[in-house]
Amino acid sequence: DNSNKLILEIETLKKELNYKLENLRKEIFTYHSDIETIKKDFSHKKEQLMTTIKSLEEKNFKLKCSWQRLVAKLSNQEKVKKKEKHQNNIGISSSSNINFDQFYSSSKLLKTFNGHTGHVLSIDYSTFDDNQFLCSGSFDKTIRVWDIDTNKQIQSFNGHSSVHYVKFSPYHYHKYHQNVICSSSFDKIIRFWDIKHNRQLQVFNGHSDSVYVVDIYVLDLVIILFVYGILKHQNHYMFSMGTQAMSNVLIFHHYKEISTIVIKVIILV
Length: 269
Known about the structure:
Elements: H1 2-80, H2 100-106, E1 120-128, E2 131-138, E3 142-147, E4 152-158, E5 163-168, H3 170-176, E6 180-185, E7 190-194, E8 199-204, E9 213-219, E10 222-228, E11 235-240, E12 248-253
Antiparallel strand pairs: 1-2, 2-3, 3-4, 5-6, 6-7, 7-8, 9-10, 10-11, 11-12
């Protein structure tokens, strides 16, 4: 009797153990199924997230390009509107003027200058010692000088966080017979660069935001740097370069941002 009872108890325990093992296998299978479902859901969400990120990056790039084109367009419009551009070209030989009618009628590419790695926002043209030069400012943080006749880069300047506007300085050529470039930047600073010695000459601080445009006006022997066009605080400044202090002589306040300006002198008789 005891033996039969023991055998019965063993069989009962076996059944209970098998039952528990079967339930455990079912639970494990359920857990594996849940894990696979979570993996698939995570993979799908990751794919959606990557697609969203890629779409946002493309939109950001397009917006940046549109903004850069707008800035370049405003800069070009400022150049076109200057009616007295000859006043900025003191020291430049009149025989070196470009025949734009001939250029337009030819309808073909004359020169290509490669070297910048970012968008070129501004260029300026000048002649020194019977040679033709072009300077350019770019989002790649550099200012480059090109020899138009040889089609080669002869100088490069670094210092700005990005370069918005460049201009050859008639002041330095007229007074010191130096070949100098003036540049303005989103870093709030105006700089002057000596082309021959590859060095920075002067720095103008004063703006509290990006400097969009610079101009230099020459009146007899009085030479003034006129700086204007910041984004937020709507001020533009006039600096005198006639003294070593390069003092800020005038401040003009506006209620909206400044994109361009024309300097004129009217003589009343």
